[in-house]
Design brief:
The structure is a single chain. This protein has a four-stranded antiparallel beta sheet, with no helix packed on it. The protein is mainly beta. It is globular. The model has no long low-confidence stretch (mean pLDDT about 95). It is built from no helices and 24 strands. It has a single domain, classed as 6 Propeller (Neuraminidase).
Length: about 280
Amino acid sequence: MRAEQFTDVITHHGEGPVWWPDGHLRCVDMDAGDVVDISSDGAEIGRIDVGRIAAVVRPRTQGGTLIAAERRLVLLDSSGNRTDLPEVFDDSSLRFNEGGCDPEGTFYCGTMAYDKTPGRGQFFRFGPDGQPSVVLDSVTISNGFWFSPDGALAYYVDTPTGRIDVFDWTPEDGLRDRRPFVRIAEDDGHPDGLTVDGEGGVWVACWGGGAVRRFTPQGALDAVVEVPARQVSSCTIGGAGMDRLFITTSRQGMSEDEVEATAGAVFTVDGVPTGQPVIATRM
């Protein structure tokens, strides 16, 4: 399969795409600190600036939006009124990077060091009141996080490991028994953001590899989507029939001689297995 360009170049570092409950695509332009709204035809673009970093965006069950900014969570109500929660950490060398919600609507988000120093990141769980607790310590670049259709498994990426890992999950015990799910060959790129379709297939963006790869629930590779931009950052499934794969890309860290003309655009593939609706946060 080969992805088709859906938007113009609209981000410097596009990340974290989400098919919003009202029927349009949202992602972040991370280093610009923007949440980016994209119309269903890819033609209209809107932006919400939240500061230096916009890492993750999720709907709220009560209406509105949760955004993981650089070191804190930001809540927007359904009218767009903003509440900044207290900083989760005060170390300016760290920032939030990627996250998502469990089947009960509990929000999780991971961190990384700006200089990518190994082991300096953490993976946090946030209660309904916004209070954080550490779920994983000593991570490096906390990335994709999504659940199986039955909610029993959680998939997670710490990019430098070269793996997608899987946890068991229950409401009572949370995440437990972390173990490797698949390893990505170095020549295929580095695992980044991911999503899970309604059949349990795991789609992972391969940074530096110009592709998204789909793995069966048993861990077998069964599809490769070629993307005409090397730095493929994340993916999600949405669209009117919930059967369109949306793929974000980035030009972060690329010189003028290296960057492709399409880097920073969003790409699509139609006719993929039906996706799962995004889980809203209870915060």
